[in-house]
Every structure is written in structure tokens, then in C-alpha cells.
Design a protein that fits this description.
The structure is a homodimer. In chain A, the strands form 3 sheets. In chain A, strands 2-1-6-5 form a 4-stranded mixed β-sheet, covered by helices on one side. Chain A has a two-stranded antiparallel sheet with strand order 3-4. A two-stranded antiparallel ribbon of chain A has the order 7-8. By secondary structure, chain A is an alpha+beta fold. The mean pLDDT of chain A is 93. Helix content of chain A is 14%, strand content 30%. In chain A, strand 1 and strand 2 form a beta hairpin. At the A-B interface, helix 1, strand 1, strand 2, strand 5 and strand 7 of A face helix 1, strand 1, strand 2, strand 5 and strand 7 of B.
Chain lengths: 141, 141
Amino acid sequence: MTKTKTPTSPLPDTIRQALRFDEHGLIPAIIRSNDDGEILMLAWMNEEALAKTIESGNLCYWSRSRARLWRKGESSGQRQRLVRLRLDCDGDTLLIDVEQTGVACHTGRRSCFFRELDRGTKQLSVVEKVLIDPKILYESE
Amino acid sequence: MTKTKTPTSPLPDTIRQALRFDEHGLIPAIIRSNDDGEILMLAWMNEEALAKTIESGNLCYWSRSRARLWRKGESSGQRQRLVRLRLDCDGDTLLIDVEQTGVACHTGRRSCFFRELDRGTKQLSVVEKVLIDPKILYESE
């Protein structure tokens, strides 16, 4: 079998060949706290962001709203260190355990998943407290 | 402020207005076991799949590969019952706790995230056992 090499990819072949990036060159990453298994956020990576994450051990994403690489915590200080990286059966999603400094959400909550649906009333309610004032998180910007 | 109503949406307004579906009309859903918090899979929903999930309490997805609605477990019997549904700060990802019958992965493993990266060697290894032979899961098809 001839191996197809992608010379322009910054990723090791073993990883590149196992993954399927979408039509925008992105893959979703589920980010989980290594301390207690809480799901903190979902973010997107391109090949470069994933390569930087693996090389440096600091989580790096592709910001779709800002259309640029985004090293988590670069403005808020709320960094994430890579502990464990898994991929799913289709190779189109990552599950990454991290050591989170402070909080993951830009609202100052620990997790981005702080709104919960009541199936009866169909209303959403906030189920997580703000731990850090976002003004303090981003005051250096 | 004038509320924009989407008369063709099968979703309640409270939910529809809080969510941002992508350019394909889809939103990713992280599926977590309610028993022990294990991440089982990531799947995609369109408005109809989400509405059916909320109404019926049985997890329903949009299969991108088959381009049709997919009631989880319809061929394998490995169903998922809705326990809790949260959304993230941007409204573009769901986190859903489920009661999983049997296994979530079509390979017969409990979770789809069964491959783990060794950062040193850059190799992937399988870290979860097959619990049910996939031939048995799909023998009725």
C-alpha cells in the first residue's frame, strides 16, 4: 500500500491520516477538565492549532469569529494544559482532557454549558454561577 | 425589540432563539452518560431532530453520511433516553446527558472516543474494549 504523504501538513502522519477535518479545514474538540471530568467547552481546531497544541502542550484553537489562531488564555490568562487527547471512531471529533487555569467560559463561569432546558416549560435557566467577573478577566486588553 | 418568529421551525421559540445552527442547519451535540459522566459520542442535530428529541425523550440525530434523520438505536437497539439538555454560551453546541442502553459506538465499544494519542511517539492506541460484537448489534438489518 502506498502511503499518501501530505508534505504541507504540520501534523505527524499518524495523526493526520486518522483525522477528517471538515470543508473549512476544522475539527471540533470537546474540552474536559482533568480534575473532575466536567465538560468545559467545545472549540475548533485546524491542523496548525492541533499541531501547536501537541507540540507545546498548551491548548490552541482556531477562532471562527476572529478567523485566527487563538491560544486559549492569551488575553484572559485562563490557560489550558494538555493532559490527554483522544479521537472518535470516525476521526472527526477530538476529546481533550486539560488542566484548566481558572474558568473556561468568557462569561466568568467554569463551563460554557451553563444554560439548561426545562422540558416541561421549554424555558432555559442559568445553572452555573459566575466565579470571576469578566471585566477582571479581560481588563488587560 | 421586535421578536422574529420562525413559523416553520418545529422548535419552541425559547430554544430556537437561543441556538445558532451552522450553514448546513446543524448543531453539534456532545452526548454524555448520565450514569458516570463518560463522554459517549458527538453527533449532529437539525431543528427537526432536536424537536423530536425534546418531544419524545428519545435521542434523534441528523446523519450526515446518510443525509436523513436517525433515531439512535433504530437498527442496533442501543437507544438513548434524554435526561438533561444544556447549551453553551454561544448557543452553538449542545451537551446532553442520556441513559444509554448498551453501547454508544458502532464498533461495540461503550464510547466512540477509544483511540488515544501518545504525545511522545505520536502513535495512536486503542484504550477501550469491545463490549458487544458489532455483528450482533446489526444482525437484524
